[in-house]
Each structure stands twice: as C-alpha cells, then as structure tokens.
Amino acid sequence: MNKELLFKNALIVNVFIGAFLLFMIQPLIGKIFTPIFGGGSQIWILCLFFFQFVLLCGYSFAYLLSKLPKKLQIIVYSISIISSLFIFKFPAIEQIEVNSTNPISSILMILLANFALPLMLVSSVSTTIQNWYKISTNKEPYFLYAISNIGSLLALLSFPFIIEPNLTVSITSDMWLLGYWALGVCIVSTSLLFFFNKQSNCNTQSNNEGTQANNREFSVKNLLLWVALSCLGTSILLAFTSHLTHDIAPIPLLWVFPLGLYLFTFVSVFGKNKVYNRKLYIFGSFLLIMLLFISKNPSLKAYFTNFSEILTTLILMLFLCMVCHGELYELRPNSKKLPIFYLSISFGGALGGFLISIASPILFNNYLEHALILTAIFSYLLFLVFKHKLILFYDQKVDLGFRYFVLLVISVYAIKVGACEIGKLNSKSKIVETRNFYGAAKLHLNAQNRNTLYNGRILHGYQLIDEKTKELLPTPTAYYGSLSAFGIVYDLFKNYHNKSIKMGIIGLGTGTQAIYGKKGDIIDFFEIDPKIIKIANEHFSFIKNSKAKVNFILGDGRLNLAKQRKESYDLLVVDAFSSDAIPVHLLTKEALELYMRKIKKDGLLIIHISNKYVDLKKLLESLSIDLGLNQVAIRVKPTSLDPYSYSNHYAFISKSDFLKKEIKKQKIEEKYNHIKLSYPPKKAKVDIWTDNFSNIFTLLK
Fold it and tell me: Which of 199, 209, 218, 556 registers the highest number of CB atoms within 10 A of its CB?
C-alpha cells in the first residue's frame, strides 16, 4: 500500500470512528438523563440542543485550528486529544443532582460539566480530518463528510437494536471510553502520517473542483443561506420529533428514527453519487403536506391510523430535510472555505436547537412551532418552484394552475388555523393551553359538562360539572372511577384495614385519587411539574373536596420518595406517565425495592399500567418473581354501572398475599363481571429492568 493510499484510509478510519462515537453517546446520554427528569421527549429534545451546541464548539475549534501552520495544527490537536483521554470519565448516575424547579439550566449544566470537552473534540474530528485531506491533496473532501454521516447513522441505529437490548449502561459507557482511546491512538498516528505527507500545491486545483469553483465562490449571502438552511433542517428534526412523541404516539423508540432520517439525508446528499432531485423532493413534499392536512380533517380522521400518520410524518420529514440539505449542498463553497462552511452549518444547527428546545416552551403555550415550521418550509418550497421554474406537468398552463392551487392550499390552511384559534376564544367550551419544559397541557373547560385535562392526545383525567348549578362534582372518573381497578381494590383495602391510612401518589394529574381520602387520612402527591399542581388546584376540585390532609412534594417522585421514612405509607400509587411515555427509572428493580421499603408490612403498591404501546404487566410480573413479591393485575372494561370510567389496567404488588386472599374471600371476580384478574407465571417472561439496563423491545405490543 503506497503512502498516499495509507494516509487516505487513515483519514477515513478517523472520520468514521469519530462520527460513530459522537452518535453512540447521544442516545446513551439520553438514556441516562431522560428518566431522571420525568421520561418525556422534551428532555431528549434538550439533549439534542446540547449536542448541536458542542458540535458548534467542535467546528469552531476546527476552524481556529485550520488557521494555524501545519506543524502547529498537529501539535495542538494531538495534545488536546491525549489530555482529554486522561480527564474524561462518565459521571455516576446516583451522583447526578437534579433541580426539578429549573430543569433546563440543571440539565445543561450537568451536560456541560461532564461531556462538553470530549464531545467538542470528537465533533471536531470530521472537519479537521477533511481539512488535512484538502491540504495534502487539494481535492474536495466532501466524501469524508458522507462517511462521517454513515458512521453517525450506523451508531444511531445500532443503539436501540443491538446495544440497548444486550448491554447495560455501564458496559456501554466502558465501550465508549475504549472507543475514545482508540480514536486518540488513530488521531496521533494520522497526525504523524500528515506530518510526513507532502503538502499539495494550494495554488492549483483539481479538475473536479476547478470546473465548479467559480459557481461556488464565498459570499455573505451564501453564508446566511448556509445558516438558514441548517437552522431550518434542525428545526424540522426537533419540531417533528416533538410532534411525533407528544401528539401522535409517545413511543420512546420514535425519538431515534427522526434523527436517523436526518442523518440519512446528509449521507445521501454529500455522498459521491448525487441523489438530490429538486423537483422530486419539492413536489413530493407538497403532496405529503397536503396529505397531512387532509388527515387532520375530523370527518376523514377515521381513515388514518396512528401508524399511517407516523409513516406520513416521517416520510415528510425525510423529504423536507432532503430539500434543506440538498440546497445546502448546491450552495457549498470550494474546499478553501470548508471550515467556515461547516462552522456555519453547526451555528445554524445550534440556532435551530435553541429556537425549538428553549425558546418555544417559553414563547408558546402549545406546540405552535410545528405549524410555524411547516408554514416556513412550505413558503420556501414555493419560492424554489418559482426561482428554478420547476415544471411538474408538460403543459405550462396546467403547471401554473398547480402552483396557484398550492398557494390556495397555504391560504386555506392559514385561515383555518386562525379560525380555530378565534373559535377557541369564543367557544362555550373554553380551551386553556399551558406549557413549560415538562410539556404542554390542554384543558377543555365545561366541554359536555366536564373539565378535561389532556397531555398530547392522552386524556389524563376529567371532572363532571353539574348541569344546573355548574359546580364541579366530587365523582371519581376516568382511570379512577368507583368501579375501576383502583376503586375496587381501594375499597377492599380500606375495609380490610378499617383505619385511617397514609397514601403516597407519584404523579398528580387532576388529583382524582384525593376524593377517596377520608377524615384522618394523609395523601402525599409527588409531582415533578409545577404547572400540573396549579391546574389541579385551580380547575379541578378533587383536592379541595377531599376530607384527607393533602400535601404536595415538588420534584422527581423516586428521588423525593427516597427521602421519606421507612414504611411511611399504607398505599403507594405510581402513575407518573406523561403522555404514555415510560419513565424507566420508576419501573426498575431498584425502584421496586425502594417502594417496598416505603410501604408498611401489610401495605400495597399500585402501579397504573394502562398503555397503548407497551405491555408493562410482563415487566412487573418478572420483577415480582425476581423480588419474591405477590402481584395481582386487574384489567377493567367499561361498564354501564360506572359510565364515568375508562378501560384501565393496574398491577397491585405487596409483600404478603393478603390481597389475593381478600379477592378470593370477597369473591371479587364473581361480584364484578367487567374485570379480569391475572397472576404472575412461574417463570419470568422478560428480562427485568434495572437502573443499569432496560429493553423496551420485549414489551412492545
């Protein structure tokens, strides 16, 4: 192998390893942090902003490095990489301090303190290596950018399908550290090859670059377009991810797929074989957006399943990102301006991340950014159609008519959105929307004589309103109705103990459970989201009408529960699922051990496991078998005897088998024909979750 080929292969290896490590650690950090801060997709969105920020820092470092003489570049970069190898280590999960009242600054400070330096250096690898290739060969290095994105994509896809199902967090962290050391060795070795490699004459250009250089000269206009297109692409990624996991289907696995598609567009566009077809992706985007609008029509909604909506949304995101990144590639400069090009892209990415993950929750009471991004990209697509005189049909008159039809669709959509907002203000059913870092909540007040709370598309509870007096009624509803699994077992538990009880509840919602409290009872609500406490007190009366003493403990439920005395509670209820998302840290072996320490000897743990996408019953059965606990799962179907309850599913876990005996004694199955009881099998069906390991694949329905 000649020296030039060896050098080129070394560069490819460096770029690939660096990109793989960068996108392997992203879901790993998300897996560590999302459960601690409530388990919702907003934590993943904020982590993506952090990654965009360190990418900007890495590209800035690479840009400054490119201004140095060749020998100095080698020395500075090698020393930086080697030094970080001895400094960096993964923080222990139990040592992470959480500030639930200011989660944005808390998460960002933890990420900056622990991961900023190594991730900045890893993110600088691609640009630095491409710059070295350009200096040595004076050829365009964009194929290395495609290889970088291939490494990123493979890392991202391998995490949920290979790494997470088979490896613990600690083993994965050790693997990453090993890979980081390997990268350090490769960087130093490549630095030596670069040092001894003869520098190309920078006054000459390769034929490939020379034929196009004049069309891609650097200008301020192009720089602003690089930033704008990168910002738009990142905004599409984050807004669509948030929309998917909050409004359509809150499945944790969906967090990975949009990022994978986003990276795929970079791989496709910057690869050697040009795949960006402007007409295909622009007109395809128009059709997909119109299809998405049609799916929102209430009269046609029955024809669109969750799966079809997810698929349409993901394909649309792919097309829109292809347009953004395809146009970005068309505007790329010649290789002399490579560092500033990548710096502009990273700045645009960080700007888009800031707008969606930090600015939007502050500025909007709902997820308005999704509609704004769609409007912006729709307008840009139309601009491209007229700028490049794209023709969809062979008849130009027909094609012109199509363009005006697209304009009409945009206008109708804008009018419809405006009319909906005005309708909300004038509607008898007043809609109140509120949002903070933990997500958006929507309240339908006095809708069909009930106040209803939604998180995304998931109903989190409602309260009946007296038709005549317009007062809120103290009737338990939704998942906590009198004939729900909770209602039936609560009465059974109360009759069995025949005394005042203390109940701990992780997750507040509307506070419906408080209505079951009697005089002398104490109820502690553990709630991470301050806006939910405000909503429960201002728009619902379950807490006000409760005869029990009600306390609110703000912050993560598991962390605050750990601070309570041993055997504090008779009943402990876990219902902290935000829009069906799974807070993994509340369902691990360590979590169940904590719950058992906090309930009394004859106490009862109640976990709400109703979920469209994940079968939590199998997990809790396996955990109960592993810990030697008694469990009964009760699934309840709607019944005319309790018209205010929904289908619900609960797991009841205890240290002794008193509940099983009471169910048999009271003949519960005969008394209630709308319930179904199930007990754990002799052997566990799935692997148990721990703070160090979880695999959601085995639980998907």
Answer: 556
